[in-house]
Structure formats: C-alpha cells, structure tokens
Write the structure tokens for this entry.
Amino acid sequence: MPAGPIAPPIAPLTQMMAEYSDPSQCPVRNVLDQLGDKWSVLIITALAHRPYRFGELKREISDISQRMLTQTLRDLQADGLIERTVFPTTPPSVEYKLSPMGRSFLVPLSAMVDWAFEHFPAIREARQEFAKAA
Amino acid sequence: MPAGPIAPPIAPLTQMMAEYSDPSQCPVRNVLDQLGDKWSVLIITALAHRPYRFGELKREISDISQRMLTQTLRDLQADGLIERTVFPTTPPSVEYKLSPMGRSFLVPLSAMVDWAFEHFPAIREARQEFAKAA
DNA sequence: CAGCATCCAGGCTGATACTG
DNA sequence: CAGTATCAGCCTGGATGCTG
C-alpha cells in the first residue's frame, strides 16, 4: 500500500471515521457543524482583530440578522470559543472576545482559508468545465 | 496594536472579510459551504484511503442515503476535488477517487481534524458549564 | 450496480415587533 | 444598547419507487 504524498493526515482522518457513528460524539462533526453554519467563521474572523460590542459586530457583518448574531454568539460562547462580558452601564454594553481556545482555533482556520484562496480559481474553472460538460 | 500570539493567520482572514460581501465570490464561503454539509468530509476522508466504487461508499458510510451520496459526489466532482471514472462493464461500475487538488485539501482538513480532537474535551466541558449556568 | 424523479417533513433563517 | 418572541418561507435532506 503506497503511502502517497500525504500519509500523515490520514491517521486522524481514520480516527474520525471510526468515531463518526454517533454524530453528537464525533469531534469533527461538532466542529464542522459550527464552522459550516453561515456566520460563525465571519464572527470569529472579526473577533480575531479585537473585541467587539454587539452593535459593532452587527454593523461589521452588515447582512447578518440580529437573531442570527445573537444565536451564533451564544453558540460560540457555549462552546467556549468566545467570552462575553457585560458592563452594567446605562445603556448596557456587552463585549465579545475570543477565548484562548478561540484564538487557537485561528490556526487551523487560517490553514483552511489559505487553501481556499489558493485553490479557488481552480475550483471555479472546474465548475465551469463541469457545467459545460453537462 | 499588539500582535498577540497568532499574528500570521489574521492576514488571510482579513482578506476573506474584505471579499465576503458577495458570498458566491468568497472563496472561504465556497469551501466551507461544501465542508459544512453533512457528508463531504466523510466522503473525502474515505477516499483519502483509496478509490471507492459507489456501492462501496454507500456501505462504508452506512447511514448516508443514496440521494445524498449521489448529490455530494457530484458536487465534489464539480469542484474538481474528486474524479469519477466509469467502467462500461455489465453491470456498470463507477470509481471515485481524490484528484490532486482533493488530496491537497487533506492538509488543511487534517489540521481542522487535529484541532477538533485536541479541543473537543474542552468544548464538551464548556457546553456543560454553559448549560449549568443557564 | 449506479443513479434519477418524486414526494414530503423538519430545521434553518430572516423579518418584524416588542422588552429591560 | 442588547437582546427576546413570534411567525412564515425556503431549502436541506430522507424515503420510496423506477430506469439503463
């Protein structure tokens, strides 16, 4: 069985495969479900720069609805990726920032982002080619 | 502006942010939309080992429906991540395998998988903590 | 064996209106 | 300012039955 160019990555992938049977128990499923949603990555990306208040985020990610912003922030907080701090001023102010774990997530995320930028032209070409063939 | 522990990743993330306005034009959106779906990663993972035939994949990923398998395979093929080869035997046989680009994708994917495995315990804890607080 | 067409339920998502 | 609540549309995704 020739190893091919990328032997190392396969080990964890195999492990994932073994554990996927119950999606709720699969670490990768759990992470990708979060990533896959429409807004998590954008929020994490914004928070990679600096802490934001709710309204600031709303403006930064202009086309997110208030509901989705609230919901996604809560989910990210529940997973421990971001920290929420309430300042009991009047009017109240709430700050969101990446937790240490959230910051550590930027590493694999940026690897994905790099790959996406590098290969997106090829993907676009492939899609056009595929559409033409059909 | 202190750089913090992970300065490098932020650059591409910023770039992503700048281009996200039109989701269909955002490389990251495009890639993550594919990743985010329920089956792509599992299929890519399976194909990381060796080429598979349709029925083999169906059995390997036992709880995928035929429809979703067909559809996901087609999407991945359209993006140029996998290659489809038809052997005109009777009965027909179709083989799926990762393209070179598909194999290159294993690198960032495995980074995500590694991160997921490493931090999943902490995420589970955070969720329980969060649920308790609420 | 591999794949398509149809039907259908459920969840995601946004718009809107209201609260502390 | 920072949310919550309710409602309605859409689209994903599964089950079933049929074709080459």
